[in-house]
Design a protein that fits this description.
Number of helices: 6
Largest sheet: 8 strands, antiparallel
Distance between the termini: 27 Å
Structural class: alpha+beta
Number of domains: 1
CATH topology: 3-methyladenine DNA Glycosylase, Chain A
Number of strands: 8
Length: about 200
């Protein structure tokens, strides 16, 4: 997608974008050095959601979530992992957490970064995805298109399963986790949850 297409696509409510990202292809880099794959699991977060980092308003930590659609929001969790979100909506504190990819390109590069993991386990979790793609905290607050990312929408219909988000306590019942039905590449935690199409 070009900048105009990306702005239109991402400038919608997080839950709509999170669903529609399933089946899209996300690559970082170009040519033979590109790495990434098909997005198979996402989660939506908005400013009126108690589980969102923007629930209590804007801060230094979450400032990127108030950026224009396509802004990258990176946060540190559990004292050891980074996770990547794509900002959506109208600069109002919404974002989609990228939880899992099905690797399709640059698999050797990703495997090296992940210590030789199997293809199925390269990107089946938000921290794993970040590590496999080589994403760093330096991308926080930057725009997808300015960092070498390429997002391509799928031309075919995909079957999306919906269920509760993973690893949260607040608003845990909300059905805001979206995944590609029957995918082998979703996170292990999501595989244990009950989802419906």
């Amino acid at each position: 997608m070009n900048k105009e297409q990306l702005t239109i696509f991402l400038g919608r409510p997080a839950h709509a974008v999170a669903r529609d990202l399933i089946g899209c292809t996300l690559l970082l880099g170009s040519g033979d050095s590109a790495a990434g794959g098909i997005i198979v699991e996402t989660e939506a977060y908005t400013s009126d959601d108690p589980a969102s980092h923007t629930f209590r308003g804007k801060s230094v930590r979450n400032a990127a979530m108030y950026g224009p659609p396509g802004t990258i929001y990176i946060y540190f969790t559990y004292g050891m992992h980074y996770c990547m979100n794509i900002v959506t909506g109208n600069s109002d504190g919404q974002a989609v957490l990228l939880r899992a990819l099905q690797p399709t390109q640059g698999i050797a590069y990703m495997a090296k970064r992940r210590g030789g993991m199997s293809t199925e386990n390269l990107c089946n979790g938000p921290a794993k995805l970040v590590q496999a793609l080589g994403v760093t905290k330096d991308l926080n607050g930057k725009h997808l298109l300015g960092c070498g990312f390429h997002l391509t929408r799928t031309a075919q219909n995909v079957k999306v399963a919906i269920g509760p988000r993973i690893g949260i306590i607040k608003n845990a019942h909300a059905l805001l986790n979206f995944q590609l039905s029957h995918s082998l590449f979703i996170s292990p935690y999501a595989k244990r949850k009950k989802f419906h199409s």
